[in-house]
Predict the structure.
Amino acid sequence: MADLRPSTRARDAQYLRTHVRPAFGDTPLGKLDRTSIRKWAADLGSQSGSNLAPATIRKVVQL
């Protein structure tokens, strides 16, 4: 993570605040399963009013 540019760090922090944290809150990583992550990823693109591009959704999921 030390080799990331400041702009990349800022973008990733925003993705965490706006997409990951609201969906999973304080759920420990060990409690997340593939099914819930796949459902969440699918929901990112299908939310009413969502303007997330497929590439953005992939970046959010990769976090």
About this structure: The longest helix spans residues 6-24.
